[in-house]
Structure formats: structure tokens, C-alpha cells
């Protein structure tokens, strides 16, 4: 099984990337391959109709979409900015379709420099899966007080948070195994209904 981990910060060397590499180390206990997409590094254009026609500015999206298609699960990581998910992550979700994410488990993760981090979870649960039909799992992770929580070597300093993260990645892998036939069987069948009601 494969997993894609999306670090949704627009900042260079962000704590979201730190969290992504920490979760990658845990994911490799359950998945054969784990790819990290750093949205700062990718610097994707804002969504426009050119993505549908495959115009030149969107050539970089093709390998990203292929990585997502080959993934059995996805982790979306965002810092909390003004109580919201980042514009880069929302833009990323606008670009995804049912081909990449439908009926695949998605774990939401937020990062906070203090004790916050709840609002982006609610925002992404409400709007993150409408047209791509991703299955956002009930559990989520919030990395609070991040500068004390994770080291620069991607190690978790809090045993309870580490244990919770290990459990959550194990749970995500279980969802990935269980939902694989649903994705396989229902993506083409669901095409007439891909934009919801």
C-alpha cells in the first residue's frame, strides 16, 4: 500500500513539513511507500480552468495527480492560520478529483504554535471532500505547542502524543485496506454524481 502526506504550509522549512516527516516514519510501519508533498516547494498556481485542458502551467499537476491515484490513503496537514486551513491546501483540494481521492481514507492533521488547531479540522470536514469524494476518517491529530513537541530530527517529545499518532496511523492503514475495493468498484459508477447534490 502507498500513502501520500501533504504538508499544506506555504512557508519554507515549516513545522508542517516537520510533522509530515514524523508521520512518514510512522506510516512506513504500515505502508510500503510514503510520499511527502510540500506545497511550499511545489508552489502550485491558483486553480483555474486550464487544469481541465492541461495547459502548460498545469503540467506539474500531472505527476502529483498520478501519485495520488497510486495512493491508498492520504494525510492532509495544515497549520492554523487565522482559524483556517491554508490557502495552499484549499487550492490543492480544488485541484483533486474523484479519480485521485474518491472513497480513499484521508486523515486530517493540524499544527499549532500554541494550544489551538481545532478550526481547520472543522473547516476541512465541511468542505474538503465535496467533489473529490475523499473519505475523511473520524479521528484526527492536532500537534499543539509544536516547537516543544517535535524536534528538528522529527522525533516526538511527548510519549502520549507519540502513542496516539502510532495508533492513528495504524487505524488509517486499516481504513485503506477496507476501502480499497470501494474505490476500485465505485469511481466509474459514481461519475454521473461526482458533483454532489
UniProtKB/TrEMBL annotation:
A GO CC annotation given for this chain: cytosol
Keyword Flavoprotein found: yes
Domain NADPH-dependent FMN reductase-like positions: 1-144
Highest taxon listed in the record's lineage: Bacteria
GO molecular function annotation: FMN binding; oxidoreductase activity
InterPro entries linked to this entry: Flavoprotein-like_sf (IPR029039), FMN_Rdtase-like_dom (IPR005025), NAD(P)H-dep_reductase (IPR050712)
Keywords, alphabetical: Flavoprotein, FMN
Protein name (record): Putative Azoreductase
Organism whose genome encodes this protein: Vibrio brasiliensis LMG 20546
Lineage: Bacteria, Pseudomonadati, Pseudomonadota, Gammaproteobacteria, Vibrionales
Amino acid at each position: 500500500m502507498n500513502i501520500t502526506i501533504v504538508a499544506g504550509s506555504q512557508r519554507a522549512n515549516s513545522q508542517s513539513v516537520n510533522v509530515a516527516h514524523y508521520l512518514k516514519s510512522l506510516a512506513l510501519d504500515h505502508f510500503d511507500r510514503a510520499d511527502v508533498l510540500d506545497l511550499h516547494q511545489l508552489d502550485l498556481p491558483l486553480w483555474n480552468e486550464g487544469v481541465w485542458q492541461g495547459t502548460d502551467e498545469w503540467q506539474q499537476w500531472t505527476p502529483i495527480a498520478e501519485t495520488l491515484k497510486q495512493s491508498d490513503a492520504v494525510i492532509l496537514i495544515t497549520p492554523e492560520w487565522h482559524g483556517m486551513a491554508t490557502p495552499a491546501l484549499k487550492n490543492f483540494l480544488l485541484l483533486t478529483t474523484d479519480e485521485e481521492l474518491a472513497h480513499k481514507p484521508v486523515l486530517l492533521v493540524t499544527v499549532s504554535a500554541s494550544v489551538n488547531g481545532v478550526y481547520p479540522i472543522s473547516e476541512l470536514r465541511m468542505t474538503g471532500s465535496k467533489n473529490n469524494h475523499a473519505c475523511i476518517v473520524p479521528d484526527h491529530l492536532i500537534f499543539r505547542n509544536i516547537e516543544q513537541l517535535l524536534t528538528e530530527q522529527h522525533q516526538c517529545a511527548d510519549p502520549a502524543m507519540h502513542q496516539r499518532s502510532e495508533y492513528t496511523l495504524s487505524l488509517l492503514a486499516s481504513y485503506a485496506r477496507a476501502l480499497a475495493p470501494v474505490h476500485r468498484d465505485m469511481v466509474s459508477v459514481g461519475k454521473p454524481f461526482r458533483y454532489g447534490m
